[in-house]
Amino acid sequence: MGAMVNGFGVHDDNDDDDGGGDDQRRDANADDFGDFEEAEGGSEEDEEGAGSNKFEEIPGFSPPLYIQRYERMAEILGDSRYANHMLKVMDVGCAECKLVSRLKSLPRVREIIAVDVDREVLTVDSTLRNCEPLAYDYLARRPHCPLDIIVMCGSVVEPDPRWTAGDVDVVTAIEV
Q: Which of 61, 77, 128, 139 sits most deeply, having the most CB atoms within 10 A of its CB?
């Protein structure tokens, strides 16, 4: 059948399998992707002058996959089966706090803890803006409770007492 690309290199279907479940793996090389160039209808010589990469021509996800993950997580947590029972949410691996900006709209959440190991990412202006209230938040106050957002530089490997007290209702880790 040919070669299948997987996360560990290339697994060759044509290898004889004795039923022992022992996959033969080898590193991928340029020869394994030769069919890709033919399928695109061009050759390396055609592309060299343009300076483009064939992998850039492959269409991506729309919207990008990370945004789909954030929206789906906000949708799940916003479901009435869960939203009315959450007071404290923790986002591990928050990076630019883009998920946090979506979780701010959860009605009964009183505290969101955003944790990431990269201090530089946490101190970027755009990250901090994702945690700040919007103009709308001042006009339409939260009906049930105020919201505190705590941004912490740390690791789940070294727990902090603020989130190990057992009162965190939801932990998200979609970017870890």
A: 77
Q: How confident is the model at residue 138 (pLDDT cuts 50, 70, 90)?
A: confident
CB 111 within 8 A of CB 148: yes
Range among 5-9, 14-18, 21-25, 137-141 rated most confident: 137-141
Task: Note whether residue 13 is domain-resident.
Answer: no
In a domain, 10, yes or no: no
pLDDT given at position 131? 93
Mean pLDDT of 91-105: 93
- Of 58, 75, 104, which closes a domain? 58
71 and 140 in a single domain? The answer is: yes
Q: CA angle, 159 as apex, 153 and 162 as ends, to 5°?
A: 80
Identity at 17, one-letter amino acid code:
D
Q: Which positions ≥6 away from 30 have C-beta within 8 Å?
A: none
